[in-house]
Amino acid sequence: MSDSTSDVIVIGGGVIGLSCALYLLKAGASVRVIERAQVGAGASHGNCGTITPSHIAPITAPGAVGRALRSLWRRDAPLHVSPWPDPARFAWLAGMTKFCNWAEFSRIAEARSALLQRSRTVLDELLEIEQIDAGMQRTGTLYVYRDGRQLQSEQWHAEWLQRLGTAVQVLDGDELAAMEPALADGVAGGFFHPDDASLRPEKLVAGLAERVRVLGGHIEERMPVRHLQTRSRAITRVDTKRGRFRAERVVLAAGAWSPKLARQLGLHLPMQPGKGYSLTFSPSSQMPQRPLSLREASVCVTGWSDGLRLGSTMEFSGYDKRMNTRRLEAIRRAAATYLKVSEGPELTERWWGWRPMVQDELPLIGPSARWSNLMLATGHGMLGMSMAAATAELVAGLCAGPAPLLDPSPYAPSRFGL
What we know:
Number of helices: 11
Mean pLDDT: 93
Radius of gyration: 21 Å
CATH architecture: 3-Layer(bba) Sandwich
Strand content: 25-35%
Number of domains: 1
CATH superfamily: FAD/NAD(P)-binding domain
Shape: globular
Distance between the termini: 32 Å
Number of strands: 19
CATH topology: FAD/NAD(P)-binding domain
Helix content: 25-40%
């Protein structure tokens, strides 16, 4: 079995890995993407496709651990932690507690905001330059509340966004209903985020993969990595069932699978898979005019010309591959309380996927402190679509130059000794 050589191997063919591959190719590197399944088959497939500079708040806000513990026995709760014993999961939760205070919240929110705002700008440039039709809709998003008390208790959200330079408008119930006729009666109010957008995630992934191939990149699908060969402090070879590959650099962008691969290198990434669910329908008779975040239920709604998707929820149950139908039904019930028409005539897909959740809810982007030619680009949680473009810009800049405009230090893997 002969070895194939390139400048960079990117492990992972989701939106992060493909974006990194494209930017590295544009920087002059030869690139090979190795994907265990099909490109975009994981969390890059069934998400709601929202591009959200507004989503600065991590789940590690004060009180998050208490909410997680209260969800242990409710399998349909928006945030659910499986009660079945798993030392790794509970160690991860224990480690998360040190970030659940307002000082850490401030630091994390500022870093998330910087990455999200930069990515929003870069994504527009990328789609235009590469002529990728991802169904981009620049309509903003609406946070919708039916409970006036919860709306009042989350006014800090608008204050934080304004402090960080992200546009937000506070709406009362009448203003919200006028802006979005698809909403059922009884909304208390909400927030409008005019700089947010949405796209069809499957189209973005397909467009990125096409551009990678056109620019000379190689994409190997259905090729799980078997072994990472090392010598001294460097990765010398990536072994798969169908080939062995060498490169000067390796970018680990395997999403929720990243911790399993990193263990071969003695790296223990502070990550857990957070399972999300979605339901996709043919277009409904009264589609929302922009993406909605149904706040009390933690459900996202996105409408496209060819479909309607209801999604979200967060389930920490390890690498459990079972579909929890209770969570799908909870999504359907929630949407029905907020929307006049919450489903299209045909259910076209039921989906679940693992998001890569880091303890502090900041992605791991940058060089490893322990391996001389390893670059990490993983741990984007629920924001892979929103953060992909700026992540790729960072990775390409750190690998091949020029120096990135965005300060990479808040996302450096070295903050966890990696």
